[in-house]
């Protein structure tokens, strides 16, 4: 029964859905499933060809890059391979917001607007074209199938919150109904809600889980505490993403749900950069994304050395992401994976960590529930949230206008108290910039309150 449904969804409904959205996701996925087995040399050759074409198109149609190339006395033919990208400047969030209109291609189709907190806590608004969406979906689809599951299989997604459900997310929920993926809101996690999530998972018997590692870790902990068995449901894999995956979380999730954890790295802004295969390799989405690792001075680093991840997404000709700084730290590998795929790999990802915060009544909240409040404020340039105690939270804000006015303070105060408790105190500090952690990494939520 279930496998026939899966087949129908995978072979008919999903392709139809994608076609309606004018995406050629299916063809791209099929082509990716062939190219993943190519040798590194062939993959590199193909990447260079695609990069040349991409840069040519961008030069012809994107005013920001045409001006940049011209003023630097560069021509598109100067970029022949990934190493040549070092001739071009980096793209960061400030550059994107300053040059927003000029970054749009003059032949772009319909573009959707996205808003993300990114990993540095500096909100980013950017545009996504159909080409990019179809490539991102195809990359995720390919990696899903590495685990002997497919789109259309039952899935539990621990993601998002009712607070952030916009029109777009509602469309997604309808789609989720069609594709049998059920959404668990990963916020407001009282013990009672955690128990009810566990019971939903037990009833649904999903083939796969998808969401934040911290959430599945918390669910695993709760199951263990209450002696609830979760490893007999036939779950084949737990896909985790958006946060750093700690080894103890992996062990805990694998032991409790009786399935391997597949780590994924990337986001809406930078694209799905890397996915883990069953043999453990963090394979890059190499056909679509060029990854560079750079030192603090901006110089490219060889494999084995730790530095910031910079990505060039070749599916973004309508709103280019060229040498986009992610703020995340990783090491490139020069090893070959036991799975036989030629796709190069990341060795370690040290970036991304989203902490939980604890409300006055003990409810554990995902840090994102506070982040969304600041992310949705037009006047906020960057921020950092520090929960000092259950009773007190401190917020550093970089305002676009240079000063944090009373209205902004009130919005933050009201939003935080609604989630943490009416009695908590919230101090808002206006700062010129957010300093990175000692590690060089930016964290946008830090809680000093223990969740255990
Ligand atoms: Zn592999």
From TrEMBL:
Single GO MF descriptor: phenylacetate-CoA ligase activity
Q: Does the keyword Coiled coil apply?
A: no
Q: What is its EC number?
A: 6.2.1.30
* Record's keyword terms, sorted: Ligase
What Pfam families does the record point to? AMP-binding
Q: Gene3D superfamilies, alphabetically?
A: N-terminal domain of ligase-like (3.40.50.12780)
Give the superkingdom in one word: Bacteria
Q: Where is the AMP-dependent synthetase/ligase domain?
A: 196-313
Q: List the protein's name.
A: Phenylacetate-CoA ligase
Organism for this UniProt entry: Aliiglaciecola lipolytica E3
Q: Which gene encodes it?
A: paaK
């Amino acid at each position: 029964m279930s496998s026939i449904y899966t087949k129908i969804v995978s072979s008919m409904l999903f392709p139809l859905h994608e076609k309606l959205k004018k995406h050629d996701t299916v063809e791209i996925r099929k082509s990716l499933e062939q190219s993943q087995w190519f040798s590194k040399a062939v993959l590199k050759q193909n990447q260079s060809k695609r990069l040349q074409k991409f840069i040519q198109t961008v030069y012809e149609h994107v005013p920001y890059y045409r001006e940049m190339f011209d003023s630097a006395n560069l021509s598109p033919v100067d970029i022949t391979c990934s190493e040549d990208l070092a001739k071009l400047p980096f793209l960061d969030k400030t550059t994107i917001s300053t040059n927003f209109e000029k970054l749009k291609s003059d032949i772009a189709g319909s573009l959707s607007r996205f808003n993300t907190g990114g990993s540095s806590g500096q909100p980013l608004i950017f545009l996504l074209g159909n080409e990019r969406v179809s490539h991102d979906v195809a990359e995720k689809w390919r990696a899903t199938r590495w685990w002997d599951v497919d789109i259309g299989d039952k899935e539990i997604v621990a993601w998002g919150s009712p607070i952030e459900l916009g029109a777009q997310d509602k469309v997604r929920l309808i789609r989720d109904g069609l594709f049998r993926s059920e959404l668990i809101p990963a916020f407001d996690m009282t013990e009672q809600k955690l128990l009810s999530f566990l019971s939903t998972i037990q009833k649904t018997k999903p083939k796969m889980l998808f969401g934040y590692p911290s959430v599945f870790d918390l669910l695993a902990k709760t199951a263990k505490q209450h002696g609830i068995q979760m490893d007999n449901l036939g779950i084949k894999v737990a896909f985790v993403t958006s946060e750093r995956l700690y080894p103890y979380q992996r062990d805990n999730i694998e032991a409790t749900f009786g399935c391997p954890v597949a780590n994924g790295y990337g986001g809406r802004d930078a694209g799905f950069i890397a996915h883990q295969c069953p043999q453990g390799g963090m394979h890059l989405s190499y056909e679509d994304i060029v990854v560079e690792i750079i030192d603090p001075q901006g110089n490219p680093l060889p494999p084995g050395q730790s530095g910031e991840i910079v990505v060039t997404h070749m599916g973004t000709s309508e709103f280019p992401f060229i040498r986009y700084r992610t703020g995340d730290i990783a090491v490139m590998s020069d090893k070959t994976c036991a799975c036989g795929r030629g796709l190069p790999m990341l060795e370690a990802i040290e970036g991304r960590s989203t902490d939980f915060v604890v409300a006055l009544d003990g409810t554990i909240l995902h840090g994102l529930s506070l982040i969304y409040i600041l992310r949705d404020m037009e006047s906020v340039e960057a921020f950092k949230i520090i929960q000092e105690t259950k009773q007190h939270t401190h917020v550093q804000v970089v305002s676009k206008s240079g000063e944090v006015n009373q209205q902004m303070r009130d919005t933050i105060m009201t939003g935080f108290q609604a989630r943490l408790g009416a009695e908590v105190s919230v101090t808002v500090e206006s700062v010129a910039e957010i300093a990175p952690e000692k590690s060089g990494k930016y964290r946008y939520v830090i809680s000093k309150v223990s969740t255990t």
